[in-house]
Amino acid sequence: MKPVAIGTEATHRVLPTPAQTAAAIGNAGVHVVSTPALIGFLEDACHQAIEPCYDTGEASVGTKVDVEHLAAAVLGRPIEAVAKVVGVQGRRIDFEVEARQEGKLIMKGRHQRAVIDLARFMAANRPAD
After folding, report:
1. Burial class (CB in 10 A: 0-12, 13-18, 19+), 33
2. 6, 86 contact by CB (below 8 A)
3. Distances from the Cα of 102 to the Cα of 11, 36, 46, 74, 77, angstroms
4. Facing residues of 95 across strands?
5. What is the pTM of this model?
6. d(C-alpha 31, C-alpha 52), whole Å
7. DSSP state at residue 103
8. How far are the Cα atoms of 54, 99, 126 from residue 41, in angstroms, in the given order?
9. How far is the CA of 89 from the CAs of 4, 38, 64, 112, 126, in angstroms?
10. Residues whose CB falls within 8 Å of the CB of residue 42, separated by 6 or more in sequence, listed in order
């Protein structure tokens, strides 16, 4: 892993789909973007921020999520998920994250990712036969 600079940022822009609504995951009638989908958008932004620091064969996985879901996000309007590196402890990277739709803050908080050796990680997490 190459060094990760504090302050490194990335923005992930996405147009949410019906498959990303609360209704799609079982909350009948709630046709707004779900909390898990928003967290996924934030994770994508974090990954994009540090991907240039991966050595060959590396990836990252989420290890901690601490967010507040502050407002509903509707379909048909883009969401911007922003991640900023605020801490580095070896292979663990801490981020401040936020998601906005048309300037409205929807979600904010912190996220942590660990940079992994992908082959070793997948070998250790192979399904049992």
Report:
1. buried
2. yes
3. 14, 20, 21, 10, 8
4. 85, 111
5. 0.93
6. 36
7. T
8. 20, 8, 26
9. 10, 26, 14, 10, 27
10. 12, 67, 81, 83, 97, 98, 99, 107, 111
3-state secondary structure of 35: helix
What is the arithmetic mean of pLDDT over 36-49?
Answer: 98
pLDDT tens-digit profile of 47-93?
999 999 999 999 999 999 999 999 999 999 999 999 999 999 999 99
Beta bridge pairs of residue 55:
none
Tokens of 106: 């929807």
User: Are the C-beta atoms of residues 78 and 15 closer than 8 Å to each other?
Assistant: yes
Distance CA 126, CA 37 (A): 26
In sequence order, which ranges of the chain are alpha helices (DSSP H)?
35-50, 118-124
Which residue has tokens 């912190």?
Answer: 110
Q: How big is the chain, counted in residues?
A: 129
Query: Rounded to an integer, what is the distance from CA 27 to the centroid of its chain?
Result: 22
**Structure tokens belonging to residue 28:** 């009948």
